[in-house]
Amino acid sequence: MNIQNLIRPSILKLKPYASARDEFKDFEKSMTFLDANENPFETGLNRYPDPQQSALKWRLSTIKKCNPNQLLLGNGSDEVLDLIFRTFCEPEKDNIILLPPTYGMYEVLANLNNIETIKIPLHTDFQPNVSDILKTLNSNSKILFLCSPNNPTANSFKAESIEILLQKFKGIVVIDEAYIDFSEQESWSSRLAEFPNLIVIQTLSKAYGLAGIRLGMGMASPEIINVLNRIKPPYNINQLTQNTALNKLENLELVTNQIKLIKDERIRVLSAIQNINFVKKRYPSDANFILVQVDDANRRYQQLIENELVVRNRTKEPLCENCLRFTIGTPNENTKLLTALKSLI
Ligand SMILES: *Cc1c(COP(=O)(O)O)cnc(C)c1O
């Protein structure tokens, strides 16, 4: 498989912007830096941040068991996704493949980049329709997006299906693992060496409790990471974000404990919800949210608002008629949700 052939010609030719810190990156203490037009008075933030985020990548690569050169960091995973579109998809020519219902951002980014979207709905058990996907894609299909665990359906895709798609699809396969830390499945990042067309996306926005700092990551072969790195904005991860992430990653025990608590609460909420008479169906969850089908989603959503509870109404999504999505909160928040649900008539 030749990845170079999938990259847009204009991107292959592009000469990246060389920042001051790219040209001279030897952070020797004795050096006096008069090259970047910064304010020289020290505040801890007066200097531009490391454009390659070396310290943070080093730490993340040990946690994620990959090499730092297999990592790209973005201002949220949304920036990583946007860079992937701009690297591989030629506007008005190429297309991407989506499996609805899924995360809405893929289609927004496709539209923003003027890329056609081909939609192949999931089966009713929310698993990919592998044969339809393989039948429908064409020579301009550049990226297949697999969100696993999937938002909003909360399930993981079967490993056998993902593996077939990775082998048969001759474009880039993006596996969005925003919820992998709540899942029983292993991350596909351990299989990068086997699949040169694989990009795994993860984020610190969910399990790590850092949605506010905007830090997402892409994991792929050094060849793919290299191209994405060349086109990213030079200083895309600001100093405050790098500092906060490094701090948080020092104490993983806190994160691990919170994940365990959220998973326990997921069991409790799913179990209690079966006694609510207007709940028609509960779907199994491999994420930090659950999808529930009720009698009338619009009405129940409004009633919950009146009880000062904001959930997500997914009734307009394909296969999600009358479905609400509940994020698993703190034990108190979940009890408040369950009490409110019981009181509704
Ligand atoms: C929440 C979420 C993300 C996270 O996006 P960030 O930009 O990293 O906050 C990515 N993908 C999916 C499917 C999500 O649900």
From TrEMBL:
The modification N6-(pyridoxal phosphate)lysine is found at K206. Homodimer. Its EC number is 2.6.1.9. SUPFAM superfamilies: PLP-dependent transferases (SSF53383). This is Histidinol-phosphate aminotransferase. Keywords: Amino-acid biosynthesis, Aminotransferase, Histidine biosynthesis, Pyridoxal phosphate, Transferase. Residues 44-341 form the Aminotransferase class I/classII large domain. The gene is hisC. The keyword Cell inner membrane does not apply.
